[in-house]
Amino acid sequence: MSQTILVTGGAGYIGSHAVLELLSADYEVVILDNFCNSSKESLDRVKTLTGKEFTFYETDLRDRQGLATIFKNHSIDSVIHFAGLKAVGESNEKPIEYYENNVVGSLVLFDEMEKAGVRKIVFSSSATVYGEPEKNPISETAKLGHTNPYGRTKYMIEFILKDIQKAKNWDIVILRYFNPVGAHASGDIGESPNDVPNNLLPFVTQAAIGVRDHVTIFGDDYDTIDGTGVRDYIHVVDLVLGHIKSLEKLDKDKGLFIYNLGTGSGVSVKEMIDAIREVSKKDIKVVVGPRRAGDVGEVVADSTLAEKELGWTAQYNLKDMAESSWRWQEKNPKGYA
Ligand code: NAD
Ligand code: UD1
Questions:
Q1: CATH numbers and ranges of domains, the chain
Q2: Segment 125-163, tens digit of pLDDT
Q3: Cβ(176) to ligand 2 under 6 A?
Q4: What is the DSSP string of 191-247?
Q5: Hey, whose CA ends up nearest to atom 34 of ligand 2?
Q6: 186 CB less than 6 Å from ligand 2?
């Protein structure tokens, strides 16, 4: 019998790609989302792309009764927990909303899981828990830090999960994502920022299609190959396949596991803009501005532990990331709107 997975935040950017891959791998999927940063459209498209059914609940993580109903109606084997607010800048302006949504929301979810006897979870964490890295590539044993409320919510939830694991014997995989980018090969689902994008790639594709006049490079005086910021961009499809490997891991092994998901290769801001220029054949105007507050020069993952223990490695390269991002942008100039 196939397993049933509860996906929180399943209508979002990463969640919708995960639902698609889970359905393709014959999992039964139950989704919870309150659409605070997404719409039903992504899920309609997943249904069309896969030709498969899933159950959807428009429910907030903090709605105890709503969660209890889901656990009563379905025999859930594992949870993949994507739901959360994720904008660093906004988290500085709205710390109460971030702690309430991410930390309180996660606590309500964990409590209802425990009450229902569901004790397996894969959690979306972030490279942000390394704060300002002391060296690259960053391994899972590196010192942790936090530089903003968003990062602190991830840091806190990681520790909450560690305590629950010790006390209640849960089986947990914490995945620390580096920089997820790209879209499904169809170009029918992708990242659809509601507002001005915070992240580099959606900003660059929007500039290429003419929604933005130019891209501002946040500083070109870092100690990197060309002076611009270097990140470890990872294709969203590779990233979600890491979640399926994590579910398989929890079928075999008991305990708490933490993995970085990245490619191990750094790409600079200039290199990323050039990659989009190449695939879009568009001229992209660039202006060099000052460094963004809180930014660091280089953040690159050591993902060898995921390779060794999950049997997972990233398959897609920079060109694949740029092509799929551009296909999504070209087919959906205004996102899902
Ligand atoms: P997203 O905003 O596209 O998806 C999150 C989804 O969760 C949205 O559909 C939103 O409506 C839903 N949601 C938020 N709060 C909710 C609540 N209280 N109740 C129910 N639903 C709620 O973001 P994403 O990029 O898909 O990120 C998914 C997860 O991965 C997040 O936890 C994020 O912090 C983490 N992450 C993302 C990145 C990235 O660059 N995208 C990097 C590292 C970690
Ligand atoms: C940001 C978040 C981080 C989060 C990650 C993935 C901050 C400070 N950090 O990281 O917590 O986990 O996204 O969602 O926001 N850049 C430009 N011009 C732009 C946008 C970005 O030059 O218009 C540069 C940045 O300076 C950086 C690189 O592009 O060097 C990538 O930026 P971004 O996509 O925002 O990701 P991170 O900074 O890695």
A1: 4-181+233-263+300-314 (3.40.50.720)
A2: 999 999 989 999 999 999 999 889 999 999 999 999 999
A3: no
A4: ---SSS-SSHHHHHHHHHHTSSS-EEEE-S-SSSSSSS-EE-EEEHHHHHHHHHHHH
A5: 199
A6: no
